[in-house]
Amino acid sequence: MSTTGSALDVEHQLVFYASYHSNPTNVRIHQVFVPLILWSWQGVLSLLPPIASTQLPLGLQLDWALLWSIAYQVYYFLLAPLPALLYLPQMIFQLALASHVAHSPSTAPHAALIFWSVFFTSWIVQFYGHGKHERRAPALLDNLVQALVLAPFFVHLESLFAFGYDPELHRKIKNGAAREISKLREKEGKTRAGRKKTS
């Protein structure tokens, strides 16, 4: 599936990501650990020196974590405005919590250990989900940037779909992902057949 030229096409982008996440157990794993990966990375960025000493509401600072989160959120708004608006409180909450852990006197001495432990543990569980349940390599191995940016929004939309949001879009994404998976299985079958002939 081509992943270029359709950066703002929400259906195209989510079909790409969904084709790597069709197993229900793997999807549930992602629903828990993708937000933790984003949160821990926001925390890591919060540990860097701030861009300016400006203090913002909710204990936020003008730092790299804030800019990273704004970039994500702007892209989500360009993809799908209403879901992005519904995701905004979660993004703000995660960012504020990361900033609190990074700078609160009670947690700051251990913040780096907390963030990196959550980050690496979450990734290990993600790879377990793909290897054990999805039985397909993660999307990031095919398109690193696209997969990392899309993951939080995909998880968010999966939750919205569960509550009945835009069933037509949900159907298109599921059908498109099924086609992509079918193409992959056909390609894998041909590859195995070719190996048998040459062995």
Molecular structure report:
This protein has 199 residues and is an all-alpha fold. Helix content is 73%, strand content 0%. It contains seven helices and no strands.
Cα end-to-end separation = 30 Å
DSSP summary, beta strand count? 0
Binned strand content: under 5%
Give the SSE string.
HHHHHHH
The radius of gyration over CA amounts to: 19 Å
Number of helices: 7
The average pLDDT is: 88
Tags for this model:
single chain, 199 residues, mainly alpha, 0% strand, disordered N terminus
Summarize the structure.
This protein is mostly helical. The protein has helices at 10-18, 24-46, 64-79, 81-103, 111-134, 144-162, 167-198.
Topology:
Layout: H1 10-18, H2 24-46, H3 64-79, H4 81-103, H5 111-134, H6 144-162, H7 167-198
